[in-house]
Amino acid sequence: MKVAFGSDHAGIELKLFLMEHLKEKGYECTDYGNYDPNDRGDDYPLPGRLVAEAIAEGKEDRGVLICGTGLGISLAANKVPGIRAAVCSEPFTAKMSRCHNNCQIIAMGARVVGRELAAMIVDTFFENEFEGGRHAVRVDMISQIEKDYGKA
Ligand code: RB5
What pLDDT score does 81 carry? Predict the structure, then answer.
């Protein structure tokens, strides 16, 4: 599975840790930036957008996005039509984001979760699959909102 990673300056350290963690498990990991933890100009919308677009275009299967809280970078990713990015701070929500919401991207806050919890959260995200059925109907309703606003 191909996994795209992105972060702002606040998330670089945790992003690199999680990339190594998933590489060891056999995932094909690519870093879409940002790359310099001292660059305060590396705002979260760009990596959020790049990762979301790579998934929407079929170049990547899943994404992991990290900023200070996980909020800004997930908000940016969710602006790309067809993308569902979930901010998760514990494994239960990470599991449900796959099983019920069919999210392609998990976002976390480097100022919220520690390394070991973050690794547990991404493992849970990658170990679970969409259940479909009644949940597919609800996800389709989300897609319909994009269509109604001419964005899909
Ligand atoms: C950067 O200081 C911080 O605002 C950003 O990493 C993120 O938490 C925004 O949602």
Answer: 97
Cβ atoms of residues 37 and 12 within 8 Å: yes
Residue nearest to atom 9 of ligand 1 (CA): 72
- pTM over the 0.90 mark: yes
Query: Would you say the CB of residue 42 lies under 6 angstroms from ligand 1?
Result: no
| Predicted confidence (pLDDT) per residue in 122-145, tens digit | 999 999 999 999 999 999 999 999
Q: What is the phi/psi pair of residue 12, to 5°?
A: -60, -45
Q: Give the whole-angstrom CA distance, residue 95 versus residue 76.
A: 22
For residue 124, give the H/E element and its range.
Answer: helix 115-127
Secondary structure class of 64 (helix, strand, coil): strand
- Along the chain (152 residues), what's the average pLDDT of each consecutive run of 10 residues? 97 98 98 86 92 98 98 98 98 98 98 98 98 98 95 72
Residue 74 CB–ligand 1 contact under 6 Å: no
Closest CA to 104 of 147, 142, 149, 151: 142
Cβ atoms of 109 and 71 closer than 8 Å:
yes
